[in-house]
Amino acid sequence: MERVFSGMRPTGKLHLGHLAGALTNWVKLQDSYDCYYSIVDWHAMMSDYEDPSMMRQNCTEVLLDWLASGIDPEKSCVFVQSHVHEHAELALALAMVTPLGWLFRNPIYKEQLRNIENRDIQNYAFLGYPVLMAADILLYKATIVPVGEDQDAHLELSREIARRFNHFFGENRLPEPQMLLTPTPKVPGTDGRKMSKSYNNSLLISEDSGSMWEKLRTMVTDPARIKRTDPGEPDKCPVWDIQKVFNNDQQELLEIAEGCRTAGIGCIDCKKKLNGHVDRVMAPILEKRRKYENSPELLSDILNEGAKRARKVARETMLELREAMGLLIES
Prior knowledge:
single chain, two-stranded parallel ribbon, 7% strand
């Protein structure tokens, strides 16, 4: 099977945007690809180095959300990036052939410099983020990377780095990974903006049903619907975006849309229907998460076994690349 690599930074508990945008697709890929899913803690350290006090707990939270959502360590290699030292070693090797101009021109780097105001990211590691990302993928010679459109620039840079490495050290040493563009349905936060921990507007995977309903109940809707009798437009309503993700009853969706446009139903009626569907989807996920929460030794075993499996592949790759680069091999 072709090999897939993808990862997530451990910045805390995951939300419904992660579930709908990435995890649902990751779960499906497990049956068709050789999947490597990594909690990329070195990437998180690039911006969170000033206060890493929550790093270990955040890694655990991400793992819990992955397992609860259906990531199966029997099918996929699940591990923490820093547990496989070859990630850092390959990143250093790739840095030797990566021109600075490529990194400074990276549009994502420029965008984040503008938008991240509360942390100092003017450091060598953050500039070199795409090099470590390339190392993450190329270390396992992954040919498929499931990403959203916003990561296309980084993945293209990974291909260019692989191409340049091959130019210096032998053709076809490293494959050029291809993007598997995954469907990313819009899941807005409770204030209508993009769901994000930094905006404090997230609906968490780990949310209990009472807390979930309280957040949905107070969620913003179409601003035109000030009174119950005011007609609305579903396409302008953040709640409708979430309805389309979690409500698979097409007839009910048609009725909700018509009721909104004619003021036949109120926003709270729409939210109650949505809450029923969210609860139906999330209840088994929450139950599974709680079981893992009560098994810390099992979580440790999963990460240890995943790292052991990942190291085997990583060491083979690095042995080949060290020889190609003319480095002295340990006897």
